[in-house]
Amino acid sequence: MINDARRVRMLDVANSLGVSRATVSLVMRGSPLVSATTRESVLAEADRLGYVYNQAAASLRTQRNDVVGLVMPDIVNPLVAEISLGAQEVLNELGYFAAIVNTAENVETQQRLFRTLVQQRVAGVIVIPVLRTASADVAELARSQVPLVVLTRAFPDSGVPFVGTDDTLIGRMGGEHLVEVHGCREVAYFGGNALATPRVSREGSFRETVVAAGASYDKMWSQPFDAGIVDAYRAASALLEKGPPPRGILCHSDNVAFGLLKALQLKGYTPQDCAVVGIDDLLQSQLWTPSVSSIAVQPTEIGRVCARVLLTEIGTPPNGPTTPPPPTLHPRTSCGCNPTNPSL
Hints:
By secondary structure, this protein is α/β, with parallel strands linked by helices. The chain has helices spanning 10-17, 21-28, 36-49, 55-62, 78-93, 107-119, 135-143, 167-181, 197-212, 229-240, 254-266, 299-314; strands at 67-72, 97-102, 124-127, 148-151, 162-163, 186-190, 216-217, 248-251, 275-280, 293-296, 328-330. Residues 1-6 and 56-62 have low confidence and may be disordered.
C-alpha cells in the first residue's frame, strides 16, 4: 500500500495497474464499457491501495452526478409505479440512481422540483408532466442543459424527446373489438381528464371507429373525469342511477375499469350486459373479478425505453430498443371473452 500521508488518487490506481486513468474512472462509475476482468482487477487494486472514490468531487468536476430524477404526477398510480420500475432497472444497470419525486398533479410543485433537480446537477430527468404544464415550462428545463425526456404527455413544440404509446391505435383497437367481436351497437369511452393528450387521441379514434361501423356513441357516458378508481366508481354509480349502461365501454385505463366494474356488479350488471375493456394491462388486471380485458401498453417496458432514450441523451447509450412496443389487446372475462388459458 502507498504509505505516504497524501490521499490515494485515481491516477495511483491506474499507474499501479498500467491502465489509463479513464479506465479506472469508468470502473468507479459502474460503466458497462469495461470488461468484467478489468473491473475486478481495478476494484481489487483500489482496495489494496486504500483508494476511495469521491462521488462529490466527481460531480463538481463533471458538473453532474449519477442521480436521475423521475418526476411523476401520482406515484401511487399502478401505471406510474410500473413505468418507474422499468426505468430504474435500466438506470441501475449503468450505475445511475433514480430519485422518484411526486408532483401530485400540481404545476407549482413540479416547477420547484425542476429547479431543485437542476441545482443538484442531476444527470438527467424523466418526467410525466402534470396536466396543466405548458410547453414553455418544459422548454425552460431543457434550456438548463439537463438531459430531459418527456413521457406519455407530448409537447411537440418543445424539441424535447418524447416516449409514449400509439394512442390513436389504442382507441381504434378498442372500438373494433367491441363492435366487431361483441356486436355492441351502443358504446362509450369512459374516463380520463379532458386535458390529457392520451384521452384526446384515444377517444377521438375510438369514436371515429365505432361511428364508421354504424354504432351509436353515448355522449353522456363519454364525459371526461379524473382517471382514478374512486372517481370512476362514483361517476359510474351516478350514471347508473339514471339508467342502464351502453352495451360496450372502452375505459381510459385499467384503474378506471376497476371502478366501473365495481359499480356495475353492485347494480347486477354482467359482462353480457355491458362489455368492458381497459387500457394498460396492469399486473393485477387478470386477477381482478371479473378479469379485465385490456389493451396492453407494457408500462414496465415503456419505462425501460424511456431510460434508454435518456441515457442516449446523456451520452451513454445502452443496448436495447428505444421505441415502445406496439399495443396488444388481451381479451378476458370483463368484455365477455373467455380465453381458456390466459397468461399473466
